[in-house]
Amino acid sequence: MTRLSVNINKIATIRNARGGNMPNLLKVAEDIQKFGAQGITIHPRPDERHIKYQDAYDLKSIVKVEYNIEGNPMDNFTKMVLEIKPTQVTLVPDAIDAITSNAGWDTVKHKAYLKEVISEFKRNGIRTSIFVNPDLKMIEGASKTGTDRIELYTEEFAEQYSLGNKAAIKPYTQCAILANELGLGINAGHDLSLENIEYFKQNIPHLLEVSIGHALICESLYDGLEKVIASYLKKLS
Ligand SMILES: CC(=O)[C@@H](O)[C@H](O)COP(=O)(O)O
Ligand SMILES: NCC(=O)COP(=O)(O)O
Question: Which residues form a coiled coil (predicted)?
């Protein structure tokens, strides 16, 4: 089974548009869990344009399933994660002003740095995952950082799949096979959707978890969160 972790950044985006508390992020997180999602993901960014750091703290007592916090391990972020102690931290090498995540780690170049931050999180009982492009060298590099898992960055797959290029799955499959051989757990995310998730799941062995936000919230505008989450769960079972 592959677990579904729902990224709720976009709920906070809508809330922040008016400065009030509608929609109520905590209530939505509770409902998403009630609808069967096995995880809640947030990706607070330094400008707090969607998830605010305070949200990350407030969610701690609300999230009863896996709590996954994503971000670049800069000082404020690291301090917050160490205080909250979520189930998992996913390290993403975002630039401060990135519109959204747009690259994985260079796990060879940043091996020493990643090793250091990963060991600090793990010492505190937090599972680690690092965001990587589907590149065998980066998977090999990841295995030398001590991380528990990798998150395959799926934007390129999603883009190519939408254009009809199903062969774009190949590097992802190869990376999943290698990651599993090297003892790494496999997560994936970015631009996954109801359209592409089934094909992705069928072609990625040992896929433990997907985190999905943007498309899932857009799909829910038409069909509602409960129905959309049920559709993902069916495709991931
Ligand atoms: C790592 C990843 O792919 C997602 O967390 C994505 O970056 C969502 O972030 P935004 O909602 O800010 O686009
Ligand atoms: N880690 C990926 C994530 O949390 C959601 O990405 P997206 O579905 O919003 O592109």
Answer: none
